[in-house]
Structure formats: structure tokens, C-alpha cells
Amino acid sequence: MKWPRAGGILIHPTSLPGLFGVGDLGPATIALLDFLAAARQKLWQVLPLGPTGYGNSPYATLSAFAGNPLLISPEGLVEVGLLAPADLADQPRFPDEQVDFGAVAPWKMALLRRSHQRFLTVPPAAVRHEYERFCVAQRDWLDEYALYAALKDEHDGAAWVEWEPPLVARHSEALLQARQRLAGEVAFYTYMQFLFFRQWSAVRRAARARGISILGDLAIFVAHDSADVWAHPELFQLDARGNPTVVAGVPPDYFSKTGQRWGNPLYNWDALRETGYAWWIERVRRALELEDFIRLDHFRGFHAYWEIPADHETATEGRWVSGPGEALFSAIRAAMGDVPLIAEDLGLITPGVRALRQRLGFPGMKVLQFAFGGNARSTHLPHNFTPDSIVYTGTHDNDTTRAWFAACGGHERAHILRYLACGEDDVVPAMIRAAFASVVQLAVVPMQDALGLGAEARMNFPSRTEGNWEWRVRGEQLTPEIADWLASLATLYGRA
Q1: Sheet (strand 246-250) strand order
Q2: pTM higher than the cut 0.85
Q3: Nearest-CA neighbor of 296 among 360, 247, 205?
Q4: For the purposes of burial, counting CB atoms within 10 Å of the CB of 457, is it exposed (0-12), middle (13-18) or buried (19 or more)?
Q5: Where along the chain do its domains lie?
Q6: Is 217 a catalytic residue?
Q7: CATH topology for the 6-67+206-492 domain
Q8: Which residue among the candidates 185, 225, 291, 297 is catalytic per the annotation?
Q9: Does the annotation mark 397 as catalytic?
Q10: Is 156 a catalytic residue?
């Protein structure tokens, strides 16, 4: 497909400001869209939007189809009569600069239960009709997810492999009894999904009205403790009890000397192929109901993925196994037409991975933080870019550019300053300028870099299991001066 020449900002909704402890789909999101419009940015990039589990990672969600209830705006519920203003009067004082998930989640869930009770007793007629249409339209994934979530609550948060054997094995009688026993909880989880998608649809309309497209993120793997694996165990490599026999990760790389053991179950690609890749087609279809463009996380795993024995604690011992390759994307195109996908082709990229991406016509990724310290042939240096790419100063897995530069060694620092022709105090704006000036069609800057923030604003440490995904921007940081500067770059380099 033909990609627009555009600039954009990467910031996940949880990182937005607001009164309720975590960014949500309320006024702060509209304020962000207004900031992006003033900055003449055409793209807003988000991370996966699903409900998170242990560790709060958007790349290990409880469902590949559901939305994160923590993103539901309380103010939006008051606006349509699904909460009373008094319901927001007793909120705790949450920190402004980070998400305290442990404090936010129970408060938010209690508030959403209050909203559900109001919906059951005095539902606005128009909202009730929307809810009924939503339940019918999304039943293919919604019924299984809501039952899974209700059962998980009933088992005090235990993973599904720890439930009673008839539930683990999905015996029809056990499932029927569970639906009857937990009907109220199933209805509550269904209601939360309705609220999320109702509010997200409003956000997407607001973005389109401002000429802004949303770039989403599709994680290649799903969490083992998820509705997807519980509902479709035949599509994954599991033992008789439902535990993974092998898990996903990557070998030692830039981020970790022992590699990354992600722990996600690996797909049974033979079983998926026999279905015509139906589950994957529906997953992509669902993603494009939410976003305009999709970044395929860990694209190299579709060519070959790193298979780690499940009983190994690190990723150092594993093997490369061939993925589905072009067959998967041919099936997606046959079902959906030309899908706007971007390949996250970072890490150990072989000629085979590059050839697959080029045959499929997907843009690849360039990251300026990976460009320096070597020689002039680095593919991440702007003079080597080709238009079929998307460039970042850094990603959600990198430190902020300011902190990255501070940690660089002398040789790398010298290369950076020579290449960008700037002083040490101007590296961040010079990196952003280099991204926008480059030949690539899409240039995206993490909000932390647009604001010139340091290590305190890092979003994720790939080798760390706790303390990630917590950063939040403050509303007063999104100044007209920064918007004007970004707008000048977008105009100067043809991205406005």
C-alpha cells in the first residue's frame, strides 16, 4: 500500500495525565489529540490496548481481543449517566508522574462495579441498545473472555491451569455450570468491554476529525494465562495439563546478555494452518477495528522464532524454528485485502527475514539510538534509509534519548556529535530533526524525547519484570512551545 509521509508521537494511554491514577480515554486523551493537531502530527502510536495481568505489561495481556478496563474514563461515564458525580468524590490521591497499578486497579474496579449496578437499574435507553448490539457483534471472543475473567476472579486470580480439571479441560457441563453460577460476573466483564470499546470509538472519531491516524501495536505472542490460550489450547504447544512445553523469547542481544525469556507459549502453526489461520485473521480484523495502522511486534518470529524449553530459566539455550512465513499473510490478505502492517524487524535480522518483509511490502523499522558507534554502513543511520521504513529516535524498550546519550561511551558520543553536527546539549532535538528530515515515510518520536526527559521517564526495561509501564506525563508539560517546534519540523520536512 502507499504510505503517507507523516510524523507522529508514541505515548500509551496509561501515560496520559488525569485525576484517577492512570491515563484514560477521557479529557486528557482529547487534550493529547489537540496537542498533536497543533504540532501538525499525523500519527498517534499506542502500545497494545488489552487488559494486563501480572507485571502490567501490554505485551502480556489476558486477551488478544479485549480492551483494558483501566483505560475507561470515569468522567465519560458521568457524562452519559452511567455514574453520578458523587461517585467520584471519594477518590484517593494518586501520584501524578507514575501509575501505581496496585492502588489504581482495585479503586477503578470498584467504581466500574458501581457503574454496572447503575446500568442494571437505570440504563439510559440509547446506551442499552448500544450494549445489546455490541454483545451480538463481538460474541465470538467476548463470551469466552468474560467467562474466563469471571472464573479467574472466582479462583482468586489463579492461572487457568490451576483451576479444577474439568474447567482446565473445558468440559461442556463444567462450562455450562460456570456460566450459570457466575452469570452476574460474566455480565460485569461484558459490560466493561462495552464501555472500553464505546469510549475508544469516540477517541478514534476525535482523532479522525483532527486528521490524526492511530498506529496500533500487535504483539506476536499472547500470554499463557489468557482467555485465548484457555479457549483455544489446540492452537498452542501445551502438555496434557495445559502448560507450555516450549516458550518464546530471543537469544542474547543488545538488551540482555542472557537473552530474553518472555515465557509466552508458542503457536502450533500446523494446527493454525489447518484452519486457514482463522484465529489470526480475526485477530488482525479486530485490531483494524480499533486502529488505522498496525505495527507487528517481533516480525522476525514469523520467519523463525526462538524456541526455549519451558523448564529453562533463561533464553541462552534455545533454537530457531521456522515460522509460518508468507502463508499466514497470504491468508490474511485473501480474507481482508491489503492490510496496513508495519514490521518491527529489530534484533537479529537475517537475509531471510529481510526478504520476507520485502516480498510482503511491509515497512521496516529504524532506530536512531542503534545507529552510532560503528561505521557508515549502519542501516540505522539516516543516509542509509529507504522510504519503505518507519524511524524512531527510540522505542518503548529503550531509555529516553537524553539518558541514552548520557550513558554512551566516548567513541559513540563523538560519532553522534559529528554526525548530527550539534553540541552535547542539543542531541535530543538534533535526533528528532534527523528523523523528520530523513527519506522514510513515517517518523515517530516517543513523547519522552519530544519533551527532552531523562531516565526517570523510561517506560520499560526489557530484562526487568517489575516497575515497568508506569511513567505518566503531566498536562503542563505539553506546552504550546513544544507543539510549535514539532509543527515547524513537520512543515519544514513535508510531514504536516
Answers
A1: 260-265, 246-250, 304-309, 319-322
A2: yes
A3: 360
A4: buried
A5: 6-67+206-492
A6: no
A7: TIM Barrel (3.20.20)
A8: 297
A9: yes
A10: no
